[in-house]
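help with these C-alpha cells:
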Amino acid sequence: MTPIHRTINSDAEAPIKGRGAACRIPHRFEAWAREAFDDGWGDGAAAQDAAPAPRTQWVWEEARSALTRNDSPDIFFDQAVNPYRGCEHGCIYCYARVTHSYLNLSPGLDFETRLIAKRNVAALLRAELARPAYRPSVINIGSATDAYQPIERQLGLTRALIEVLAQARHPFAIITKGSGVERDIDLLAPLAQARLVAVNLTITTLDARLARVLEPRAAAPHRRLLTIRRLAQAGIAVGVSVAPQIPFITEDMEQVLAAAREAGASSAFYSVVRLPWELNGLMRQWLQQHYPERAARVLARIQDLHGVDADQRKAGRVYDSNRATRMKGQGLWADLLRQRFEHACRQLGLVRERPPLDATQFRPPAPSGQQGQGVLF
C-alpha cells in the first residue's frame, strides 16, 4: 500500500492567532502520510505552544497567461485575471483554497502563508488584449485571490493591471475585502465616469469578533464600510457582496445591507457557502475550534442548502457542485434566504443587478513591454 504524506495538526489543536486555518491539511494529490507523534521524550503541548507562528512568504512567478476564462452560467463574468496565487486574508470559507493543491501546497495554512506573485501579469494582459482575435467582455479582478491583500502594497501588481485596462478602455470589475483599493481611486474614478469599472466590497458580517476568526487578515467590517463611502464619494459605482452566507454563523445579512447602503453602495448580491474538496475538512475543523456547540447544526443546514441526500450525508458530503444551484442553494432554506435578501434590497433601494459596463470603447493596446515566459523561483 502506498502511504499518504500528511502534515496536519489534530482537531483539538488551538487556532492560530491571525490565521484562518490551523493546520497544513493534506491536499488531494499527496502520496505520503506524516502525522505528529509524541514519543514521551518531551512535553508535546509545551513544544507546540513554543512553535513560532507561521510567517507569510511569497515568491515570484513568470506566468504563462494572464486571463482565465469561465463558461459557468452562474458566474457574472466571462474572464478574470488574478495577480496572485493564495491570499493572506485567510478567509476559512474561501473556495479558492482548493486551487493551492495544484501547486503541491496545502489548501490550509499554505494558502494564506505561501503566496505566489505573477511578476509579468500586466505585460501578459497587455499582449493578450492586443491580439487581433481578442473580443472584449468584462474582466473580473480577484476571482481566485484578493487583489488588494497586504502584499499588494509592496508589489503593486493590481495597479499595473488597472493601468493596462485603463489604456485599453476595457471594462472590468473588482471584488475585494481590502481597503487598499482606495489607493487606486485616482485611476478608478475617471474610468467609473466612463462606465468602465465597478467595485464590489465583500462584507460577510458586521460582527468584528466573528470577522477576526472568519477572515482574520482582511480589513475590519467598519473599515470596509468606510471604503465603500470613499469610493461612492469619488463617483465610483460600488456594490456590496454579503457572501458567503453561512447558516447560524453569519446571521446579520439585513444589517450588513443597511450599513452598506448608508455608506453609499448601490447594488448587492450574495451566495451561500460552498465546501468543495479539502474545504469540507477545513470548515469542519474551524467549526469545532470556534463554534463546537453548533458545528453539527451548521453542517446539517449547509447540507440542506445544497440538497445533499441521506446517502451523501453518510459519506460526509456537504456540497453539490450543480451549476444551477451551487451559488444560491436549493430547497426551503435557500428560498427563505433569497426572500430575506430580496426583501431587504427592496426596502433599502439596493439594485440586485450589477451596473452595466461599456465594452464599445475598447481599443487594443500596443503589446510593448511584453516579457518572456519563465519559471517559478
Q: What stands out?
A: Confidence is low (pLDDT under 50) at residues 1-12, 369-377. DSSP finds 13 helices and ten strands in the chain. The longest helix spans residues 332-348. The radius of gyration is 21 Å.
